[in-house]
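#lab-general

N.A. 3:47 PM
ok so I finally got the sequence cleaned up, no stray characters, all 290 residues accounted for. can someone with queue access submit it? mine expired

B.Y. 3:52 PM
send it over

N.A. 3:53 PM
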Amino acid sequence: MSEDFGGKPWSLVHYVCVRSAIEHIRPTDAFLYFEFEPQGPWWDLARPLVTPVRIEAPRAIFGNPLVHPAHRADVVRLEKLLETGGIYLDADIFVHRDFDDLLRHVVVLGVEQAGRRPQLCNAVILAAPGAPFLKRWHAAYRSFNSVGRDANWNRHSVQVPSRLAQEFPAEITVLPPGSFFRASWEPAGIARIFNSVEPVVADNSYATHLWETFAWDGYLRGLTPGRVRLVESNFHRWSRPYLQGLSDDCGATPPSAATGTAPYRLVTACKRLLKFVGTTLPLMFATGFP
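B.Y. 4:20 PM
back already:
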């Protein structure tokens, strides 16, 4: 939601996540919401797969300021799902299989197992339009009071839905950590995704949250198809099928950018041999909710 995409460019990781979601979920429509449109070769490849929707994210809710872009995005996903229903995915969710058997539920969230206790995570949300659970969650923003990464940072994105799920269990289907968050955002979880071939995907796994914020500097910054083809890890193996036909240096930063001798520009010579037919991307997906 920020002008520089949260301080990071739209990159290889976002492209392969979009591709994986479209291939497995097979949505009827796919929308990517933003205030400032991403730039660069990876966005050039991803843009035809989605319906880009420029919005102005809310700066307040119930009179409470929404200072951080992440909190504005939290509100946007709830309000869009309440309006239309569908599947919401963060742009760093890698999808392993279809969600068809989840569509009979009114609301679906997954457990994130990290830190002292398990809680629900809002990186993946399935919901029917006007779902009562989402109405309660949205109404809880009347008490919103975070200004960034403070003591209340994840109160309304994680703690509130976790509490509401205990109070109103009939209104939500809660999936175990293996469904979306088998590897956590903690260092061991990040290493398991990006620096190990120890299996992450299990029989009950629908997707894997790649925790881009925590993995960016160590694994994702400046990642190219050539690097993906050389490294053996869960993520690199998952990504390879979606990079076929792309040059090894697609998206690489020119050497001059590092020295400051020329304006920064991403390499745009990404040879695209693949065609995408019959699908468009909710990161939000429109799909078969009753």
